[in-house]
Amino acid sequence: MSRTKSSTLWGWPTGWSASAGADPVVHRHATRSAAGDGDKPGEGGRLRTWRRLTASAGARAQNGLRPLALACLAVLMGRADIAHVMDPFGVAYFAILTEVLGTRRSWPGWFVPVGAGLSGGVRGAVGALAALGLYRIVRRWLARGRNPDIHWMPFLAGLVAAVVRLGGHWAAWTRYDVALALADGGLVVVLALIWIQCMPVFVGKDGTRSLRMDQLISMAIFAGSVVAGLSGLSVRGVAVAPAVVDALVLVMAASGGAAAAATVGVVLGILALLSHSLTLPQVAVLAFTGLLAGVLKEAGRVWMALAFLVSTGLLTVSAGENWPVVRAVLYAAAAAAAAFLLIPRPWFRRIAEYVPGTAEHRVSEQERARRMRALLSDKIHEVGDVFDELSAVFADTGDNPLASARQLLDHMIGNASRQVCAGCPRQKRCWEQEGYATYQSLVHTITKLETTPGVNVGPSRDLKERCIRVDPMMGVLRTGLDITRRDAQWLAKLRDQRGLVAAQLSGVAGVIRTIADEVDRGNESSLSGEEQVLAALQQLGLYVDDVHIVSLDPGKVEVEVTQPSQGAYENSVRVIAPLLSGIVGEHISVSRVTGADGGPCTSVFSSARLFDVHTAVATLTRDGRLVSGDTYTSADLGNGRYAVAVSDGMGNGERARRESKAAIELLKKLLKAGFDEKLAIRTVNSTLLMRSRDEMFTTLDMALIDLFSARTEFLKIGSAPSYLKRGQEVRVITGSNVPIGILQDIEVQSVEEQLADGDILILLSDGILDAPKAADNREAWLKEQIERIETDDPQLIADTLIETAARASGGEIQDDMTVLVAVIRRHQPEWAAIKLPGVVGLRRERREWLRRRGA
C-alpha cells in the first residue's frame, strides 16, 4: 500500500496516512514500484504485506495521537487566561471542536476543566465544566436533530460563558462583574469566529494545500492562545512560554520568510503580553528579530539562529531592561534556537508549502495543478475514445449495397407470390416442386422491366410459359419495382448519412484529443523554466505573481503570466513580451489580457505571427436590391491560420443569402473548433441537403492562410476562379467541383500555393465574372483588369474591380457581385527582443529536462 503525507499541519513525524486519500498519480507510482521489485515472488509478496502492515500501523498511530494532541491542547486552553481575570480560551476551543468534529469525536474537549483546575483550582474546574455542559445542553435543544449553522455557535458559546460567569456571583452582581462577564463572552465569540478559519486544518478536516493570509493569522492566534496556557511554566530556569514563542517565530522565518515571521511575531507577542509572559518592549524586539531572521532565510538555519539570538540580546539590553530580565530572555532565545536547529529540514519545506508567497508554496500549487491537468487529460482522452467507438459502430454495420439489393429483391418476389399465387391451383407445383425455376423466372422478368424502356414491357419467356396468372403478376411486379427503387434510394442515402456521421464523430474525437494534447503540453514545461522567467522579470524590476508555461513548441508558444492589474497591458507589451522573445528565441506577442478591475490579471503570451493579412470587401446587389445572395467572411481561426471565404447562394435575394450565410457560418465554426477542412465541408454539404426538400445549393471559395509560413490552401467548391497577383504577374486558380448541396458525396479538391510578402489574393463571386457580355474569354478579361491595377491597397482594389464590372455590364446588374481582397504582409514586431546576460534559452532548458526525464 502506498503512503503519502496527510493534509494536516501536525508537527510530528507520524503525519502519514494510507493511500485511501492519496493522489491517484502517487498511488499508481507506488504500486508499480512494489510490483516491479527484483525479488522472488514470495519475497515480493512478503514485502508488499510488510508495507501494508506498516502503513496500517502508521494510520492507527496517527488516529491514536491526534485525540491525545487535541486533549493536550484542551488542557492548555483551559489553563490559559488573560491577566488572571478572564479565561475565554477553553469555552471557545470546546465549541469549535464540537462543531468541527461532532459531539462524539470531540471528547478531547472535555479536558478543558482539567487545565482550568490547574490554574484556578476546584472553583475554576467546576466553572469550566458547567460552561461546557450548559453549552452542550442548549446546543442540543436548539438543534433538535438538525445540524446547526456553525457560524451562529460562537454567539451561543459567548452567551453561555457570560451566563456561567455571572452565575458564579449569583449572590451579588457588581457592575465590574457584569462588565467582566460581557467581556469574557465577547472574547469567546471573537476567538471562536477566528478559530473557525483554522480548526479544520488542525483536525484534518480541510484537505487544502494552501492557506489564505486570514487563515495564517488565525492559526497564529490559535498558537498564541496555546502559548498563553504555558504561562508560568519553566524548565531548569527557562520560561517555557517565551521559548515556545521564539521557536515558533524562527520556524515561520525559515518557512515563510520575513513577512510571515514578523506577522506571527506580533500576534504571538501580543497574546503573550496579555498573559504576562512578555512585556511590550519584548514584543517589539520579537517582531524585529523575526523579521531579521526571515531576511537571512537563504543564508541557512545556523545564521538565522545566531542572528536571532544576538539581535534579541542587544535589543533587549538597549531597551533598558535589567540583567535578570536580559538573562531570562537570552535563555529563552537560546533554548528556542537550539530546538530550531534540531527540527528536521523536511518539516520546514512542508510548512512552507502552506504559506502563500513562498517558493515551496508556488511549487506545490504548480505540482497540484499538473496532477489535475493530468487527470483532466486522461478524462478527455476517455471521452475521445467514446466518440471513436461511436464512429466505429456507425461505420461498421455489416451492410453493403449487394446485400441490400438482394434483400429488396427477395422482399419484392415474396410479396408478389403472396398476392398473386395465393389460391392458384399451380401454387404447389411452382413453389414446392419447381421453386428455384419459378424464382429465376421472376428475376428474369424484373431484370427485363428494369433494363427495357417503355410501359408495355412483357414478361420473360420462362415466366410466360410457367405462370397462368401473368397479367396480375406483371401488375404486381411493376408496382413492387417502383417501391423497391424508392427503398433502394433511401437505403443508399442512409448509408451515406451513416458514413458521414461516423466521419463527424471521428472528427469530434480528433478535436477532443487535440484539447487533451494541449493539456499534456502544459505539463511538459519544467519548473526551472518558470522560475527562470520570474527571476528575469525581477532582474528588470518587474514583480509578477505567477508564471505558467503551457507550450514551448516552435510557432505554438504559450505562456501565462499573472500580475497586478495596474499597468498590466503596458508591462506585458513593453517588458514581458520582449523578454520572452529573447528567452524563447522567437517573437512573442500579447494575445489577451484577462482579469477584474482592481485584482490580479492574467496575460497570455503566444507566438507572434510572421505574416499579417489585410482584407477589404466590396459588394453590389442585383438591380439595387437591399439583400445580396453572396456572403463573405475573413476570420482568424485561432490556431495560426487565417480564413477568407466567399459563398454565392443559388439565385438572388433573401433565400440565397440565407443559404450562403448558413454554409459559411457553419464552416467557420467547424474550422475554429479544429475540424479538418475537408470533413467540415462535407458536413456543411450534408446539412444543406437535409435542411430543405427544395433544391438549394451554394458555392464556396475559401483560402486558408498559415500565418507562420504563408502557405495557403485553396478550397474551391463550384466557385468562380480566384486570382493571385505577385508584382505584375497574375495567376488564375480554378477548381472543378460542383456546388455544395447538390450531391450527397462530394469530392473536396484543394490547391496549395506558397504566398510571399506583398502578394494580393482576390476572391469573387460569379456576378463579377459574368458582367462583361461581349467578352469571349471572361477569365482572361478579368485577369487583364487586375494586371492594370497599380495600387496595393485592398479596399481600392475591391472598389476598382466592382466599378469595372458594373461598367462592363452596361449598367444592368444581372447577379450579385462580391469582391474580397486579401494582401499578405510580413509582420513587423513593435518591440525588439530583450536578452539578459546569463539567461539560458527556455527551449534548451526544456530539452535538457526532457532528456533527464527520459533517462
Q: Radius of gyration, rounded?
A: 42 Å
The count of β-strands is 18
Kindly report how far apart the N and C termini lie. Answer: 27 Å
Q: What share of residues is helical? A: 55-70%
Dominant shape: elongated
Main sheet makeup: 5 strands, antiparallel
What's the mean pLDDT score? Answer: 77
Q: Going across the biggest sheet, name each strand in turn.
A: 9-18-17-14-15
- Structural class of the secondary elements? alpha+beta
Keywords:
five-stranded antiparallel sheet, alpha+beta, 855 residues
Structural description of this entry:
- By secondary structure, this protein is an alpha+beta fold.
- The strands form five sheets. A five-stranded antiparallel sheet has the order 9-18-17-14-15. Strands 10-11-12-13-16 form a five-stranded antiparallel sheet, with helices on one face.
- α12 runs antiparallel to α13, α16 runs antiparallel to α20 and α20 packs across α24.
- The longest helix has 55 residues.
A few lines on this structure:
This protein is α+β, with helices and mostly antiparallel strands. 58% of the residues lie in helices and 13% in strands. The two termini are 27 Å apart.
